[in-house]
Write a structure and sequence with these properties.
The complex is a heterodimer of chains A (about 300) and B (about 425). By secondary structure, chain A is of the alpha/beta class. In chain A, the strands form 2 sheets. Chain A has a 7-stranded mixed beta sheet with strand order 1-11-10-4-9-8-7, with helices on both faces. Chain A has a 4-stranded antiparallel beta sheet with strand order 3-2-5-6, covered by helices on one side. Chain B has 2 domains: about 120 residues, no CATH class; about 220 residues, Orthogonal Bundle (MetI-like fold), CATH 1.10.3720. A 3-stranded antiparallel beta sheet of chain B has the order 2-1-3. In chain B, helix 9 packs across helix 16. The longest helix of chain B is centred in the first third of the chain and has 45 residues. Classes of the chains: A alpha/beta (about 300), B mainly alpha (about 425). At the A-B interface, helix 4, helix 5 and helix 8 of A face helix 13 and helix 14 of B.
Chain lengths: ~300, ~425
């Protein structure tokens, strides 16, 4: 834990408890009664009440590489679930299955079934374009379009025909920027390029761009890894606020971040979903040896 | 640390060698650049030295009497058959009344270009009121006089070895004394088509031919090339077929241009029965020639668009088509345009394929359309370089200068387009 993150936690109050738990030295954890060590079935609880996105027995192959092995996971409506795990464990791959971004990789092959609100997203009835309007995505590196701030946010509503006239579009753009906490900073320079903003502002612009389409699920692929601690804190606050309306799936390498923002945590290891549980439970009382090793810093 | 030398000592020992290698490399670079610049300098100096004189042309001032009797019998004057050459000749004779013998008169007449007659006719057509009047007119001198005035004919040479006789040189001196011979800007070079008479030959026909060809080329090659590049880069599935196509496109870019000329001859002229020597066919052949260049440049430009932009657009629900046209194209456009302009400048400088489709013909008229017989600027250079007259040598160089000027203009445009449209992300 660096000093920078400590100061940043002071600025935001709603996550201090979770942070404290992670910072506990090892000996203060309750030793689990029985701890699983073998790989195979996911321990913990992959189910949740009120499931919205349901992934059943997902396997992903990149050519001959078996990247995701038989993953089953339910994601509830308006919950934040964090996917953690060492690099190359398949958490980003799993995330990209949820809005079919893997389609653009020619060698990728997905088997299993993912339903969004009961509808099979790999089925014939759902076009990936329509799916992505319902499942938005925020990427690791802020990637605003080389267009004006206004056009960045207005792009989604425009292509999906969400606004009938200019006034309505203006309204969507303003509301989205407001929700992303960016409106105050950019309202006088809507015509300036989005790429001229700072890294943290760019990422909030990307979030505004995503929520302008009013999706049902937001996928975030390490959204803070390119940002400084202060910008990270703002994004985390934003995730908290957005979780009231959206189901959020966030991939992160920072266990502190997972502890701060998520309600549930899923731990991936070598393409397997090792353990899923309530955030508190994962960090205080992991049920699998690998999870424990990872969160205590012994692997990863 | 092996006890003998520390890292620092080892680095310092090798440093001199490393610095020396760097100095040698830098020197080699400077040398290479200098040699290149030197070659270019010699080329330009030679070209400008030989060609710049062609932009000026010797004219002789004659007092022409547009007398009715020379124009023909009767009150109505048939301009088609009127003896305008005679008008110029008689004006010249009046300037030199001492010349009386037939042979000498013929020699005197040779001082003035045959173009003088055409010039007088055009004057009279433009203004019929001139009939019967007397005007002082500057008419082009013949190319031998022009060469003499430009110092290309040595009067000290034996008379039999030079194209001007002693009396002719004497008359030129006489005209000089009276201020009736002077060098003016050579407008004919830019307004006339080709001619057997060097003093009347111009590059306008070739320029217009090149222009019509490039219009056809850009209209065909740009849209087809860009569309092919987009399809291959964004839509085509990677397979053995697309690999094969890729190899072939790269190969086509290296095929000798004359092969495209043969293809054009076989397909466009022999099979499709399009007119010979026409800019339309030339443009089609040059399109084939520039297509690979444009496709390769456009694909490179599309590849250079960061994948993060594509992902962002896809992630928000843009269709493949929208990703391409809203995001990839605007970012790739400067590269595509640069590739196109470079392809066009290659097409402008191309002569070999045009020889195959009959654009090497001697064509006097300035082409007025895509199917008129025409020639192109590089082919005109080739034709003039082949001509025996001394005066065509300087015109060849002048035509090269004009061609280089256009190439420079096009490549400059490419640079400006790239600088203007380039966006940072």
């Amino acid at each position: 834990m660096t000093m920078a993150i400590m100061t940043e936690t002071e600025t935001t109050e709603n996550r201090t408890s979770a942070t404290a738990q992670v910072d506990l030295p090892d000996e203060k954890r309750d030793p689990p009664a029985t701890i699983a060590t073998e790989l195979g079935a996911t321990v913990g609880n992959v189910r949740c009440e009120n499931p919205f996105v349901v992934a059943e027995n997902i396997d992903v192959y990149y050519g001959d590489n078996h990247a995701i092995k038989n993953v089953t996971l339910e994601i509830g409506k308006s919950e934040v679930i964090a996917l953690i795990g060492p690099s190359g464990c398949g958490k980003s791959t799993f995330l990209r299955c949820l809005n079919r971004m893997n389609d653009s990789i020619e060698s990728a092959r997905v088997t299993g079934k993912i339903t969004l609100d009961g509808q099979d997203i790999y089925g014939k009835g759902l076009d990936p374009v329509a799916l992505r309007a319902r499942v938005g995505m925020v990427f690791q590196k802020p990637n605003p379009f080389p267009k004006s701030i206004y056009d960045n946010v207005a792009y989604g509503p425009r292509i999906h025909g969400l606004a009938t006239d200019r006034a309505e579009l203006d309204d969507i753009v303003h509301r989205s920027l407001e929700r992303a906490g960016l409106l105050k900073e950019v309202k006088d320079r809507m015509d300036e390029p989005g790429t001229g903003l700072s890294g943290g502002q760019q990422q909030r612009l990307c979030i505004a761009r995503t929520i302008a389409v009013d999706p049902e699920v937001i996928l975030m692929d390490e959204p803070c890894s390119a940002l400084d601690p202060i910008a990270t804190a703002r994004i985390e606050d934003l995730i908290d606020e957005l979780s009231e309306d959206y189901a959020i799936v966030i991939v992160t390498h920072s266990m502190q971040q997972a502890a701060r923002v998520s309600r549930r945590v899923a731990y991936f290891h070598l393409g397997l979903l090792v353990e899923v549980d309530e955030t508190d439970k994962i960090f205080t009382n992991p049920q699998h040896r690998l999870t424990e090793d990872y969160i205590t810093g012994r692997i990863g | 640390m092996n006890g003998l030398a520390t890292t620092r000592e080892k680095v310092e020992a090798g440093l001199r060698r490393r610095r020396r290698t760097e100095r040698v490399f830098r020197l080699t670079g400077i040398l290479a650049t200098t040699v290149g610049v030197l070659f270019l300098g010699v080329f330009f100096a030679d070209l400008i030295g030989k060609g710049s004189s062609a932009f000026f042309q010797t004219f002789i001032q004659l007092d022409v009497e547009f007398s009715e009797d020379i124009l023909g019998p009767g009150s109505t004057v048939d301009l088609e058959y009127a003896d305008f050459d005679g008008l110029a000749r008689s004006a010249l004779r009046r300037a030199f009344p001492e010349v009386t013998s037939r042979g000498e008169r013929r020699e005197l007449n040779r001082l003035v270009s045959v173009g003088a007659g055409y010039q007088l006719r055009d004057m009279l057509v433009a203004d019929p009121a001139l009939l019967g009047a007397r005007r002082s007119v500057w008419v082009p001198a013949s190319s031998t006089v022009d060469m003499f005035m430009k110092g290309n004919i040595d009067p000290a040479l034996d008379e039999a070895l030079r194209p001007l006789s002693d009396p002719q040189i004497g008359w030129i001196k006489g005209l000089q004394d009276r201020g009736r011979i002077a060098k003016h800007f050579n407008r004919a070079l830019f307004t006339n088509g080709d001619s057997r008479e060097p003093e009347l030959a111009g590059i306008r026909g070739a320029l217009m031919g090149s222009f019509y060809m490039l219009v056809v080329t850009v209209l065909l090659a740009f849209p087809i090339g860009v569309a092919a590049a987009i399809y291959l880069e964004e839509f085509a599935p990677r397979s053995r077929w697309s690999d094969l196509i890729e190899v072939n496109i790269n190969n086509l870019a290296a095929v000798p241009s004359i092969v495209f000329g043969l293809l054009g001859l076989a397909v466009f002229i022999n099979w499709a029965a399009l007119p010979r020597s026409a800019p339309l066919v030339g443009g089609l052949v040059l399109s084939l020639l520039t297509l690979p260049v444009i496709i390769i440049a456009s694909r490179a430009a599309i590849k250079a668009v960061p994948p993060s932009i594509r992902e962002a657009a896809l992630g928000i629900g843009a269709s493949q088509m929208q990703v391409v046209f809203h995001h990839v194209m605007p970012l790739a456009m400067p590269g595509m345009l640069t590739g196109t302009i470079i392809g066009m400048s290659r097409a402008l400088g191309e002569s070999a394929p045009l020889l195959m489709i009959g654009m090497v013909a001697f064509i006097v008229d300035v082409p007025g359309g895509f199917s008129d017989p025409a020639t192109a600027l590089p082919v005109q250079i080739y034709l003039w370089a082949d001509s025996p007259e001394r005066a065509f040598a300087e015109r060849t160089s002048a035509a090269i200068m004009v061609l280089l000027g256009f190439l420079l203009l096009m490549n400059l445009t490419a640079v400006i387009v790239r600088k203007r449209m380039e966006r940072k992300w």
